[in-house]
Amino acid sequence: MLEFIKSPDDVLAVKLTGTITGKDLDAIIDRVEQRFAKPGKIHFYVETKAIEGLELSALPHHFSRSFPLFSKMDRFGRVAVVADQAWMRVLTRFESAMLPHVSYRVYEPDEHRQALDFAFGKELIPA
Asked: By the 8 A CB rule, do 43 and 78 touch?
């Protein structure tokens, strides 16, 4: 299940639970494309909880939609991922290593406030 979280215009914030469906992936790509219509970087907050799987039949369509985004990787900014499952945190760290110019951070569920602050750029503002 996908839930969009209220966030600043330059941040896409989502919560994913259970099985990730093709409709979920399409909705996320739609929002990313909307954000790219505006200038500047886009930042991400992704919270996952009890992910049971991914609808494999949706992957070919998802790849065809997401592949063009690789040409815009210079517009990807901060990525904060909160995951309750160790395998998801490991997968995110692997993805981070594959995209070294994107600033990834991985958090445990009890650190979700720090993750939001990072994604929203609040930790970058001196108190």
From this structure: yes
